[in-house]
Amino acid sequence: MDKAQLISEVKELVGNAEMEKALNRLAEFLQSKPEYKALYNLVLQSRAQFQKTQRDEIQGLASSEQTKLGYNQVTRQILQAVEWLEEGNLRPDAGFTKKSRPGSRLWVAAAIVLALVLAGGGYWLFLASSTEEPEVVQTADCPIDEKFDETSEFNILLRPFQSVAGESQRPHVLIANSLQAFIKGLRIKCDFGTLKVEDTDRFYSDADADEDAMKCGADLFIWGITESSPSRPITIKTFYKFFSRGDRLMLSKLKGAEGSELATVETLSSILTSGVLTQGIEEDIKLLFGLIAHETRDSITAISMLEGYQPEDSTTLLLKGMVLAEDYLATHQKDKAWESYNQVLEIHPNYAIARNNRGVLNYQKGNYMEAVEDLSVALEKEKDSSIVESILKTRSSAYLNVDHLKEAREDLQKVQTLRKIPDREINQKIKEVDQKILEEEKVKASAEAEIRANPNNLSAWNQKAISSAKLGNYREAVSAGEAILRRDPDNLDAFVQIIKAYRSAGDTTQAEKVIQRAEAAGITRQQLEGLTPFKLIQPPASRFPIERKIN
After folding, report:
1. 120 within domain boundaries
2. Which end of the chain is less packed: N or C, by CB atoms within 10 Å?
3. Can you tell me the distance from the alpha carbon of 294 to that of 356, in angstroms, rounded to the nearest whole number?
4. Which residues contact 295 (CB under 8 A, 6 or more apart)?
5. In this predicted structure, what is the pLDDT of residue 261?
């Protein structure tokens, strides 16, 4: 689709008040070319705001007027982005924080009028013709020491830390001093300011933070409390909240790709864009500055800060690991991203985005069984049909690479079902797999004939084990391997076939027991691993959830 078609389609979607579709189409188009990066990031912000407004409306967290205002603002942002795209303004200086120019095209107003009322319910976009959208900028009552620079693209607001017991501490001074030096190295224009606080004893709530951040036009707000006593060390709690991306972190979900380039889709994660840090101010600064660099699209600086941060709790480990992996991917360091997902999955073994992304990377690395295991976990939790299709296609290809013909065919058939309309390419692949299955059934039948003629023919038993596994009959594969071991107790090939069968069936407990039997027979793990399409020594997080135990 060319730019003119895209613009026409988005205008029509906005006119029908189909904002989510409009945002998705815009994001999909803008993601396709590097020169659209600035507009693409603005549209992602707008989509995050739309999703947050939806959630607040559903959960009853926002009033009717707040919901109307939220949808109203998103509509204006979509129209503004399309106007910039049409004009060829690919690096708008003001972002979405400035009012539209008086000379904006008539189609903008027309689209808004069309979206005013939706028959049958849905969104009510409340727009009076004479009312401008409020600017998200610093207001006169922002109690800040010095106004943010008008050219700043990312504003950081800092509040003096509040002492709740003991001597007054000033960790915010250390943060401010560090910020001053840190901001100079960032790739986009940032600024920070400190709130002037008169009543230091008043309880400062999260709602207060939201209000001050809104008044001052902050993208990130940092505040905190300190507590000290003679009998215990100083306790510091650092609160932070990002305001430019909604309440959930936006991460990339990798789509299966056999080439060297990774395809991605933006998705909201379960990770909050706000939190509390308690490790000590120096460590907290590393994480905060890493997040600032990530949010300002300076991946190199983000990596530098986050690599040096060692989280002590599982929540911040998840945050650090996923953001660090994201920046590794952005700088084409796929192996380091893979390692970061490993660390995340050690603590959060069922975290779907990490499983999906590591699965795709495992596939690209040639770790096909590990890819199958990761993608299977991700598939259980995935709801997006396009991502489900991508996972199934990648998993089917991984299955084929380890000669799991039955499972490969099942995945291809599921892809065909999802597409609803017959796909010639998928049909052709299914036919090719069917032919391989037919050939393997003949090989297995031949091996069984040889066994009937000579029950001590170990080569025939081994071939039966191999063919049974390829056809998805793991019980038979195990039985054939055990038949060999009864005749030759230290047969390496037999142990390999049994281990592969149990692992393929998802029964890692039995696979480990067979490995131990092999070791007792004098066979090392290194010998076994040299003949298996997967690693035998690996962390529990990478193990496949048991689905098909062999009884």
Report:
1. no
2. C
3. 21
4. 154, 219, 220, 242, 244, 245
5. 62
